[in-house]
Amino acid sequence: MSQPFATAQACGRLVIIPVVRCGPPLGLTHRRPQQQGIAMLLKIAPLVLAAAFLSPAHAQVQSVLGDLTVSVAAPEAKQGAILVALFDSAHAWGVGKPVRVATVSAAGAAPSANIAGLPPGAYAVRAFQDVNENGKLDANPFGLPVEPYGFSRDARPNMGPPAFEAAAFTVTAGANAQTIHLH
Q1: Cβ(82)–Cβ(107) under 8 Å?
Q2: In the chain, N or C: fewer CB atoms in 10 Å?
Q3: Tell me: the pLDDT tens digits for 10-36?
Q4: Which residues fall within 8 angstroms of residue 49, CB to CB, at 6 or more apart?
């Protein structure tokens, strides 16, 4: 008599999986070979799925991602919010399409935004302090910002935002950090 459960070892854990019986007991089959193959696949499918989701390879995929902490060095005004936009290419930087955004309070001593789960690669950050909390970077009639702003790697603007390459840094697996000084 067969057991109603099978066990498998995955990621150092014992996994108990119900066994589904399809058709007559083994040895008493009258199926064609194609049907026997399908029946066998149905029997082992739960084991294969469990192994795929509990395997060390699945854990390794998560360990290759990077986490980024963007800190803002001592904002002068302790009011409003700091808006952080993360870009992953020169094209996205140029058209203003960030891959991630974060908002943190400027009231803290050292405001910082944590952005988790980033694939390794080149990134750049734009940040500004929205002092009046209207959700946008305010500018004077000539188009110059009147609220504090900054870029990763402390890249300096030149008649507009700096080039992506000037602000770009590399995110690797694990913890990464960038400090931005607002001007």
Answers
A1: no
A2: N
A3: 444 555 555 555 555 545 455 555 556
A4: none
